[in-house]
Design goal:
With about 475 residues, this protein is an alpha/beta fold. The protein is built from 20 helices and 12 strands. The strands form 3 sheets. Strands 1-2-3-4-7-9-12 form a 7-stranded mixed beta sheet, with helices on both faces. The protein has a 3-stranded mixed beta sheet with strand order 8-10-11. The protein is globular. The relative contact order is 0.10.
């Protein structure tokens, strides 16, 4: 990897690429020059807006991404990178002030999409506006301008701030819009049908079943939204003491009728440009996965300091838990797996960062095994000795239901929730989480637009699912 590519991968501002073409190399819009920030928020916001608007005018003179020549592609990349360097510089000075402006001095708690949308209006040029996002939405991933990288820079800067980042993490631990209304429905019927998710109450347990069977229960925007609502409702319902996650039967020809836990991110959806950075890749980590780990934010006089209310969770793994599926297991309190199942984080194959797997896996497996899994794609089968570090019980398929019921009984004790909260505090302090998420935001946004990822999704797109060999 070249020094420039490495700097871009790490989210470090860089000037546009050098070119022998004087129309490219001599263009001030791709020179990486300081746009003239002086430290005043209002004045610097105007400078950024003008700088970004000028770059957009120059981009508009170029063909769309698929039709660009090599020189035109370099010119477009230079324009983007110059603006990204300016955004980094602006946010290095003003991240806290921008966040306070968008949240009325942290008296409001907008979620990620609302925060980005408001930032586009209040600070033009800082993040892509609605029109540009709509323009990108209809394109294949390889044909996009990579405007989600700008969102990654924005959220990375906010999360890097102890003040803004902590407030944002806590805001995302609140119930998602609509969850309270679905709670009332669930309490009436003990059942909630959501897009790609089924939530059922059985005694003191909330059973969350993934129902994205056409793609081996792979994760997409629809499944992520349904899972956050299901987790919210389970945490809000005071009749529930324990949650259970399990994959439902799938319809993929290779595994038709069989339960599958999860095949991870849906690469066909990523290729098609339908995996969003804000709602999925970042929202997943700050939303339902963090709620599984930490619970819901409780606010008011009885919960000074933003305490959370969590519950223990059980995972039942049929067949395999790949990628995001395995990531979920790292925040659960009991993992029961079918004999012959396997777990994997195929980051080396997919080319993206496996969520918070890099943060959480080492403390379970140790550094050497974690590197084998993340960097080399090692699969951990239930017969491997390493499986004991990740799975509590390995049983025949016919015994999984009874084992799940037994786990619910054992975890339903009144002191379990308090003790798991203290374990989370010791294992993953909020500051550790915040620092990781700040870097993850920038790096993951760039990875989903990197040439190797785009090439791999292209190869996967012709397949009818993600059935592993």
């Amino acid at each position: 990897m070249s020094d420039g590519a490495g700097r871009r991968e790490a989210g470090i501002p860089a000037a546009g690429p050098a070119s022998a073409d004087p129309a490219v190399s001599g263009d001030p819009a791709v020179s990486g020059a300081d746009p003239g920030f002086r430290g005043d928020l209002a004045a610097d916001a105007k400078v950024l807006a003008g700088h970004a608007a000028d770059a957009e005018r120059r981009l508009a003179l170029l063909p769309s991404r698929p039709e660009r020549t090599t020189a035109e592609a370099e010119r477009a990349e230079g324009l983007h990178e110059d603006c990204r360097a300016a955004r980094h510089a602006f946010l290095a000075r003003h991240a806290d002030a921008v966040y306070d402006e968008l949240t009325a001095g942290r008296t409001r708690r907008p979620r990620l999409p609302e925060l980005a949308a408001e930032a586009a209006v209040r600070f033009p040029g800082l993040v892509p506006d609605a029109a540009r996002l709509a323009e990108e939405r209809g394109r294949l991933q390889a044909h996009k301008e990579g405007r989600e990288i700008d969102q990654g820079i924005f959220f990375g800067a906010l999360l890097r701030s102890p003040t803004a980042g902590t407030h944002l993490i806590e805001s995302m631990l609140r119930p998602a819009p609509g969850s309270a209304a679905r709670l009332a429905e669930f309490r009436r019927t003990d059942r909630l049908e959501l897009p790609a998710v089924l939530l059922e109450r059985r005694g003191e347990a909330a059973h969350v079943t993934f129902r994205n069977g056409h793609c081996l229960n792979a994760e997409d925007n629809r499944l992520i939204a349904g899972l956050e609502t299901a987790v919210d409702v389970a945490l809000l319902d005071d009749r529930i003491r324990v949650g259970v996650l399990r994959g439902g039967p799938v319809t993929h020809p290779r595994h038709a009728g069989r339960r599958i836990f999860s095949a991870g991110i849906n690469l066909k959806e990523l290729h098609a440009g339908r995996i969003s950075f804000v709602e999925f890749l970042l929202g997943r980590e700050l939303g339902y996965v963090n709620k599984l780990a930490r619970g819901l934010l409780r606010e008011g006089p009885a919960a000074a300091g933003g305490a959370t209310a969590g519950k223990p969770w059980v995972g039942v793994v049929d067949a395999f838990a790949i990628g995001g599926g395995m990531q979920l297991l790292l925040v659960l309190d009991r993992v029961i797996a079918e004999e012959g199942a396997f777990l994997s984080l195929p980051a080396a194959d997919e080319g993206i960062v496996p969520g918070l797997g890099n943060l959480r896996l080492t403390r379970l497996t140790g550094a050497r095994t974690a590197r084998q899994i993340i960097l080399s794609g090692r699969r951990v089968h239930t017969s491997d000795p390493a499986a004991a570090l990740l799975v509590d019980e390995v049983l025949p398929a016919a015994a999984l239901d009874a084992a799940a019921e037994r786990a619910v009984r054992e975890l339903a004790g009144p002191a379990v929730a308090a003790n798991r909260a203290m374990l989370t505090l010791a294992e993953e302090p909020l500051e550790l989480l915040r620092g990781y998420l700040a870097e993850f935001s920038v790096v993951q946004a760039r990875r989903i637009h990197s040439p190797d990822v785009l090439a791999k999704t292209e190869r996967h797109s012709a397949r009818s699912g993600r059935a592993p060999a």
